[in-house]
Amino acid sequence: DGGITQSPKYLFRKEGQNVTLSCEQNLNHDAMYWYRQDPGQGLRLIYYSQIVNDFQKGDIAEGYSVSREKKESFPLTVTSAQKNPTAFYLCASSIDYSNQPQHFGDGTRLSIL
Amino acid sequence: DAKTTQPNSMESNEEEPVHLPCNHSTISGTDYIHWYRQLPSQGPEYVIHGLTSNVNNRMASLAIAEDRKSSTLILHRATLRDAAVYYCILRYNNNDMRFGAGTRLTVKP
Known about the structure:
- The complex is a heterodimer of chains A (113) and B (109).
- By secondary structure, chain A is an all-beta fold.
- Chain A has strands at residues 4-7, 10-13, 19-25, 31-37, 43-49, 56-57, 64-66, 76-78, 87-94, 103-104, 108-112.
- Chain A is 0% helix and 46% strand.
């Protein structure tokens, strides 16, 4: 089945450590996104990519980095500069960077040890 | 930025219709109205979207006020699987989505 796969489902980070969250899609979508969700709140955009080898900062990009070397993959690195990384991270994709619906993965829950 | 206002929570009985309201009084002419829902510990799921006319799909109906300052998501027969947080979102600049806190829908058997 086509869809978006995020891994791992749960991730623990030590202080000062960088961690990378995986997001893979087989929908042949050009655009991909990363969101952060804190308890009881809506989603906030971290980064987005309109096309391979291109990405743009969202509302809360500080302390995060991304790459888009392949169309199907959009990994997110949470760096040690992100002082409050504990959250639920969601990856999404859409056919293109337009008003098309976004398809979401099931998320990665990141916690600090 | 155009914002949306939704009730924090609503309750419904199973197999009854549910009307979820959303106010967006500062909507601009090019903003689309999107609805997503999110089950616990899952990613959001697209439900429906529209610009000016009412819209129907297999999941729900979207009723948009004539002045576009409000809209209503209609679930025609609520099931227990419809219990989720429902987000009303205005999409401007063709893409950017701003998620608020949404409405938590509880469906009682």
